[in-house]
Design goal:
alpha/beta; eight-stranded parallel barrel; 8 strands; globular; binds 3-hydroxy-3-methylglutaryl-coenzyme A; binds magnesium ion; Aldolase_TIM; EC 4.1.3.4
């Protein structure tokens, strides 16, 4: 079992990219500051993607510039291609994330190219990032199932993970985009991928659509995985993954870890305040169980 865990807070990006009414840059900046204040140090703050594809992430350059100087934070942004890379670098990005898929159907819907083409697109991005001393994280979507193709074979995930690792990603985040995984499948997948990318460099990015995310994380931790992507309030989803709901909630993850004696450095009261603030803004209560329980007290 992992004895320490690093949380990557993806709420300001994954959490807000699917909101019907886009959340403005000033409110996204306030959320990021509140999350940092709560003790979350690695925060994904935006995406340099097509504004036609994801209008919710416009002004990510402004958001990044406004938070980049904040002490104690590492701020990540998504980059799909060289155009996005140039904009991210100009805004001062120090860590970018490229994003691929284990399934062809989702790759086509999300980034309008095949899986192999996406890897080719990432090559110059990663090479330029290396030259500019910008760290690159790699995502793989649909690792436990695809909204267009159904079952996804672990070998398809292994192939993409190997490619991202070989290109120089420092960490590969395994996305259960539609939250269909179960603990035994998550365990089996982590074992398979860890044969090619060291377990210490794998992250678990589990959406909670079917209520399995915490159980899947626990299974992954038993395998030795120690990086968890989560979103405050269980926000999230992807417009190109029909039916997908939010990421596992950061409050739920923090509650589970602290209860297991694994220190997170996160102040639950401050995290709850950040979560409540953003849910007021989007007009929905947080979906997380821990937020509901604590708010009812
Ligand atoms: P495309 O249409 O094939 O791109 O889209 P293109 O190169 O043909 O360009 C088309 C237009 O987009 C042009 O503008 C470009 O300038 C513009 P026009 O001439 O029509 O006015 N463009 C851009 N604009 C801003 N920034 C850019 C950029 N690139 C092109 N970087 C593309 C391909 C990848 C750009 C598009 O499909 C896209 O932006 N997709 C992003 C989709 C996305 O952000 N999805 C959500 C994130 S992934 C996710 O949530 C999963 C994850 O959480 C893990 C998990 O849960 O599984 C990470
Ligand atoms: Mg996601």
């Amino acid at each position: 079992m992992s004895d320490s865990v690093r949380i990557v807070e993806v709420g300001p990006r994954d959490g807000l990219q699917n909101e019907k009414t886009p959340v403005g840059a000033a409110d996204r900046i306030a959320l990021i500051k509140a999350l940092l204040h709560a003790g979350l140090h690695t925060i994904e703050v935006g995406a340099f993607v097509s504004p036609k594809a994801i209008p919710q992430m416009v002004n990510s350059d402004h958001v990044l510039r406004e938070v980049n100087h904040l002490a104690g934070g590492e701020f990540h942004v998504l980059v799909p291609n060289e155009k996005g890379y140039e904009a991210a670098r100009a805004a001062g990005a120090k860590v970018i994330a490229v994003f691929a898929s284990a399934s062809e159907g989702f790759s086509r819907a999300n980034i309008n190219c095949s899986v192999a083409e996406s890897i080719e697109r990432f090559k110059p991005v990663i090479a330029r990032a290396k030259a500019d001393r910008i760290k690159v994280r790699g995502y793989i979507s649909c690792v436990l199932g695809c909204p267009y193709e159904g079952e996804v074979k672990p070998q398809a995930v292994v192939d993409v993970a190997q490619a991202l690792w070989d290109l120089g990603c420092y960490e590969v985040s395994l996305g259960d985009t539609i939250g269909v995984g179960t603990p035994s499948k998550a365990r089996h997948l982590l074992r398979a991928v860890a044969g090619h990318v060291p377990m210490a460099h794998l992250a678990m990015h589990f959406h909670d659509t079917y209520g399995q995310a915490l159980a899947n994380l626990y299974a992954g931790m038993e395998e030795g995985a120690r990086v968890i992507d989560s979103a405050a309030g269980g926000l999230g989803g992807c417009p190109f993954a029909p039916g997908a709901t939010g990421n596992v909630a950061t409050e739920d993850v923090v509650y589970m870890l602290e209860g297991m004696g694994i220190a997170t450095g996160v102040d639950m009261a401050r995290l709850l305040a950040a979560t409540n603030e953003i849910s007021l803004l989007i007009g929905r209560p947080p979906v997380s169980r821990v937020a509901s329980a604590l708010n009812a007290k």
